[in-house]
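Methods: example folding runs. The two proteins below were folded one after another, and each record is reproduced exactly as written to the output file, sequence line first and structure-token line second.
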Amino acid sequence: MATPPQLSNGCRCRPPLTSPSLHTTSDSSGTCRSQHIESRNSSTESLEHPPPNVPEGEHIDSSEGVIQKHQHPDTLDTLDNTRTSSINSSQESLKSTSTQVCTSMKEKNAGTKSGSSMGTHSASAVPLPNTRWSHRQWIKFLSLHWLSAYRVLIGLTFIINIVVFAVLCKRLSLAAPLIATAANIFAAVFVRQEDLINLTFAFVAKMPSNLPFWFARTISDLHHYGGFHIGCAISALLWYTYFVYRNTVLFLGNADAGTATASMWVDIVTCYSFLFSIFLVCITAHPRLRVKFHNTFEHTHRFGGWTALIVLWIHAGVSSNSPDNTHMHANPAVWLLAATTFIIILPWTRMRRVPITTEIVSSREVKLGFPFKHMPYTSTMRFSRSPLMEWHAFATIPNPDGESAYIVISQAGDWTKAMIQNPPSHIWIRKPAAMNFLAFSPLFNSLLLVATGAGIGPMLSLLRSPAIAKMKKQGRTIKVMWCVYQPDAPHWQFVQDIIRNVDPEPRIFDSKQGRPDVAGETTYLMKEAQIEAVMVVSNPKVTREVVEGVKAWGGAAYGAVFDS
């Protein structure tokens, strides 16, 4: 790990994060004060309330929560000001200069609302020193971003397919690319199957906590299995493109010779139909297109995938009647296709329509309860009002009675807005609930849970789980950080109770006073409390900043993948 540059006061700074950031200035007396620079990003609206509108050239003073004018507007977007860490090899030097450069955690805790036992903080007011990254730090930060576990799995899948092609290319029959295509499609579908996810996640979660840190940190990236899904899907497209090329050359030769039969025409038409279908599915799954046109992505992925599957069955039946090809029962590609079809049909046999109870949490959040016996902890389930058109995944929270569960929905789009403003009496659910990345929490000796807004929902399931109770009994450290609009409001009391049952002194921010630098606060608390791993549930931007910021320090950090 690249060592952050040493500061003159003995502090080490964390790698700067792009946004939101804290901007440090000095008054005439030379005393540092901080200014909270709010990043306007629409991706945050799903989990946090927007702060008051701030005119250009003004800022929210993080210590007072009020709008003030910038004396120097040209410094508004400075991004290289970073938080210092209170835990390093020069702690004594840090203590002697902390009043000038750093604010300790105790000083920040003193800024809570007077007379309140909730320990709610306004936006962070920690003065941050000016620092610059070394070349090694930049290289490491970029590698963390571009060489994530997700992308590594995509690359490994490509490498495996390239090696297979390189080894067999000189003796590949016409059927070989079809088998490779079927194998990749099967793997792409199977890796997302809920039963497989639960089996593998449960196996990893039950590993002993005394594993080497590097192993626990690596194995906990298992929730990036979506990278394997994408790698296999694109590999299937490439294999089938190669098959279509060879089949087209063969067909054109027969057509020129006048020996092309009706089955050959059907075969070549189904080839290009399947190629177009799978190409369309892959293109619409591109991250930017998926986010911008999510409904189109979901419909194309579902109906385009079904169309491709039907066309592939027609193609398999037609090609098996050719005298040069093997019969269907002896063709490995057909058996792989049959297994893929079974996996795709299985979830539709597990749908149930259940009644729901609605409890309005706020104007932007709603709590939906539904009957479900023995709902597993740290799990995610899919919900729908129109099963053929769309499904939405939400983390489930079991009720103590063991007979029901609930989810917390935050307004993030048309579907969630309709659920809040006009909730139905019944909803479709799809079993089983699939375990999520929070299930890996017991692998670490100390843990920091970070959430913003309704992202606290998945954390509640973890906080009430037997795994956390066991960790507390063993004396392991569990800290909670939560940023939300008006956390002291009565509708959030049930959340406060669950949090404080595990962490009596959580770090809770009121975003009404201005949003803090969540990534900076996370890194600071992680270093201050000697935390091994961080679990974060927030919007994509904050999740990425927290995970990359913590990993830049050599810690372990995990968040949702946002690939569906």
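Second run, written to the same file directly after the first:
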Amino acid sequence: MATIKKSQVREAINEYQAKAIEEVTKKHFEKKEAFRTQILKQEPELNNLYEAFKRVKQVVSGKSIMADSLFYGCFYELKSAPACNTFEEFENYIKICVAWWSFPGFSELEHAYESEKSEIYNEYDKVRELMKSIPQTQKCIVELEKLGFDLSNLKPEVTKAVAIIEVDKTKLGLAKKEN
């Protein structure tokens, strides 16, 4: 007889958890991107920094006598930096390079994200404990649906029949030897 297994229910709950974490992560990256954009927009010297970047990049990447020395010295990262032909490309590059954790507000953003993820994990741990406390799968499904989980798409697993195979016991070394 085909029945819904508890492992199927656990799998469905894990999918719900993964979806919740994915949503929180997506929101977090949107907030982080907005934070970075806001900080860059507030920087009055960003245009001057862009012009300086282009000029120094040109010299370090060029054929001057000092270019290689500067490259192995203080401009190591700059030589391998992208060309940044437009200001927008430069802004995107700078977003990667800035030590964002040094800005006030950034650590709060990260902390809020980690806290929210932790709360989700804790709540799903409670759901798993509830599942363990209910031995019958059908009762477990009813309780989880009361909590708001949609488990209607779970289909009973078809149990597989065991095949009977002829085995040569002598070749397996299991045949009793007669004296």
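Comment on the second run: The mean pLDDT is 85.
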